[in-house]
Design brief:
The protein has 662 residues and is an alpha/beta fold. It is built from 27 helices and 20 strands. The strands form 5 sheets. A 6-stranded parallel beta sheet has the order 10-9-11-12-14-13, with helices on both faces. Helix 22 packs across helix 27. The chain starts with a helix and ends with a helix. Bound molecules: thiamine diphosphate and magnesium ion. The site of magnesium ion has 6 residues, from strand 4.
Length: 662
């Protein structure tokens, strides 16, 4: 039988050889963490390589995503669908083995990592999801949800502010099944970290309320094994296992230095490393006894079938709950969702409430709540302003896991990446909430959810200068345009309660990308619509008010500026003016050309109105059109005064329109 060290050396060899072949990549971390990974994956972790998506598997997150070859080696060796050719294709176009682990590229990759601090934060979200799903579904004697979340992270993840946000709340919540390993190797890219790393990581985590296991030799399998055992035994606190390691372990001349962090070792050093490790096999050749030592297919199938038997017993005793569990883990909405939402939308159009769209958003959540039990909300300490809660909201906290709402604290970036983690875990449709301005704190989480094709919902209230007196620090100006620039990201800015309800419905129906719902602080006048117009809202842009014959001008507006466009059109009664409401340019762009041409008739002059920068609007108005917009930051004043000050008036729109029409 191969020794643990020999098994770990297979990871080292694959990692250094793949990086060498690609002539790029990061051999240091995989070689340094190989012994830890070997103990975890061979002796502790619960997973089935032939069914990577098994619901009750332990989750594994490589937060130091630059060490991707570590994960690829583990997936290959244990028997996931990742061949030796995939390993040889490391970092090549269309390979499963991208530079950093990419979610959806290969079985067993639980999240895309690379931006440091993000993986650990996703992992906290996964652990929150596990805990709450267990509380919602487990019954006495039937533990169908019961798994750990394991995270590897380096010094870089710990230096990132993001890790403070998520690890602090993980401690507060007492996430006992979260177990993180710190690759304490004293090295980051600039060299030895003494000059820039905090001195007492263990103390920091202890202060968060974590169970800290210090001074574990990350190259001593017995010590690692004991530490994991101790971590699993602690159920009231998350555990941090501080593993002292040597980066590039095995490389005689480069181990322990930053030179092996992110560059191939070089042919000569690889030869020397083979010798020092006693690894005599050719590159990409793994002897059968090593494969046998790693192969987890049989053990994985056994552990899953043991769970399946438990699930079958649960299903027999609680058939409805079992069906709900299966539906939720499959990410399918309840069968009556669309019907219920359409009823709610029709009712809202009938009642035409004159309310802020943030209130309309809350009303939509209230309508969805009883229908969609997987809805999980939260806000970064602005619940009363974001109106992200509803009458059925039950708070999740340290004492109570069986809820559907969380106060994330003042942690926007952490919130967004924890929500991503919950989404990746499965079983929840999770949404976050904050002031729109603070999307800036969250930007990389938005981007990562779009990149991963997952569907969290971002609720952003206080959408423009319309928020008034809080002033320019809180008034978004350029945010909506930059959000529209993110590929595979959908942004909605509703003009009234009806569009708000539709935007929620569309966000919920989206299954391969995230959605931001942008809402106002101030009241918005409801618009009259025919049923056909109500139906067209989901197309992202539609004719809200038309004229007879070909228009002289099309006014395009979003959000609070739609009412202004309507007033301006009324003031130009002598001209033929069409008003287009455009709650989502992303969605409108996805419509067929014929529909888009029917709304924005080719050749007709256009003016767009939005209380944000003009970036992106010339695509719709052309070079002979105009945009009534912001070209500076806002000011602190009542909203009405600000709209006047910045030109969002009927007079200015009419003057601009007249100039365009000539
Ligand atoms: C947010 C972010 N900033 C910077 C980087 C670039 N980067 C990749 S690895 C790394 C150093 C990480 O140090 P550590 O986690 O200790 O990794 P080790 O060198 O020990 O493998 C940096 C700065 C990144 N990937 N993400
Ligand atoms: Mg390091």
């Amino acid at each position: 039988m191969s020794s643990r060290r020999e098994l770990a050396n297979a990871v080292r060899a694959l990692s250094m050889d793949a990086v060498q072949k690609a002539n790029s990549g990061h051999p240091g971390a995989p070689m340094g963490m190989a012994d830890i990974a070997e103990v975890l994956w061979n002796s502790h972790m619960k997973y089935n390589p032939t069914n990577a998506k098994w619901a009750d598997r332990d989750r594994f997150v490589l937060s130091n995503g630059h060490g991707s070859m570590l994960l690829y080696s583990l997936l290959h060796l244990t028997g996931f669908d990742l061949s030796i050719d995939d390993i040889k294709n490391f970092r090549q176009l269309h390979s499963k083995t991208a530079g950093h682990p990419e979610y959806g590229y290969a079985d067993g990759i639980e999240t895309t990592t690379g931006p440091l601090g993000q993986g650990i934060t996703n992992a906290v979200g996964m652990a929150i999801a596990e805990r709450t799903l267990a509380a919602q579904f487990n019954k006495p004697g039937h533990e169908i949800v019961d798994h750990n979340t394991f995270v590897f992270m380096g010094d870089g993840c710990l230096m990132e502010g993001l890790s403070h946000e998520s690890c602090a709340i993980a401690g507060t919540l007492g996430l006992g099944k979260l177990i993180a390993f710190w690759d304490d190797n004293d090295i980051s890219i600039d060299g030895h970290i003494t000059d820039w790393m905090e001195k007492d990581v263990g103390g920091r985590f202890a202060s968060y309320g974590w169970h800290v296991i210090r001074d574990v030799d990350g190259h001593d399998a017995d010590a690692i094994n004991a530490a994991i055992g101790a971590a699993k035994a602690e159920s009231a606190k998350p555990s941090l296992i501080c593993c002292k390691t040597t980066i590039g372990f095995g490389s005689p001349n480069l181990a322990g230095t930053h030179d092996c962090h992110g560059a191939p070792l070089g042919q000569d050093e690889i030869v020397a490393t083979r010798e020092s490790l006693g690894w005599t096999h050719e590159p990409f050749v793994i002897p059968p006894e090593i494969y046998a030592g790693w192969d987890h297919k049989e053990a994985g199938a056994a552990v899953e079938s043991e769970w399946q038997a438990r699930f079958d017993a649960y299903k027999a005793a609680y058939p409805d709950e079992a069906a709900e569990f299966e539906r939720r883990m499959a990410g399918e909405l309840p069968a009556n969702f669309v019907e219920e939402m359409d009823k709610y939308i029709a009712k809202t159009q009938e009642e035409m409430p004159n309310i802020a769209s943030r209130k309309a958003s809350q009303n939509a959540i209230e309508a969805m709540g009883p229908v969609v039990p997987e809805l999980f909300g939260g806000s970064a300490d602005l619940t009363g302003s974001n109106l992200t809660n509803w009458s059925g909201s039950v708070k999740v906290n340290a004492e109570n896991a069986k809820g559907n709402y969380i106060s994330w604290g003042v942690r926007e970036f952490g919130m967004a990446h924890m929500v991503n983690g919950m989404t990746l875990h499965g079983g929840f449709r999770a949404y976050s909430g904050t002031f729109f301005m603070f999307m800036e704190f969250m930007r990389n989480a938005l981007r990562m959810s779009a990149l991963m094709k997952i569907n969290p919902i971002y609720v952003y209230t206080h959408d423009s200068i319309g928020l008034g007196e809080d002033g320019p620090t809180h008034q978004p100006v350029e945010q909506i345009s930059t959000m529209r620039a993110i590929p595979n990201f959908e942004t909605w800015r509703a003009c009234d309660a009806i569009e708000s309800a539709v935007s929620w419905k569309e966000a919920m129906l989206r299954d391969s990308g995230p959605t931001a719902l942008v809402f106002s602080r101030q009241g918005l006048k409801p618009m009259e619509r025919t049923p056909e117009q109500v139906k067209n809202i989901e197309k992202g842009g539609y004719v809200l008010k038309d004229c007879d014959g070909t228009p002289d001008l099309i006014l395009i507006a979003t959000g609070s500026e739609v009412a202004l466009a309507m007033d301006a059109a009324a003031a130009m009664a002598e001209r033929k003016v069409r008003v287009v409401s455009m709650p989502s340019t992303d969605r409108f762009d996805a419509q067929e050309q014929a529909y888009r041409d029917s709304v924005l008739i080719p050749g007709v002059k256009r003016v767009a109105i939005e209380a944000g920068v003009d970036l992106g609007w010339h695509k719709y108005v052309g070079l002979d059109g105009a945009v009534v917009c912001m070209d500076s930051f806002g000011e602190s004043a009542p909203a009405g005064k600000l709209f006047e000050q910045f030109g969002f008036t009927v007079d200015n729109v009419v003057a601009t329109a007249n100039k365009v029409m000539g």
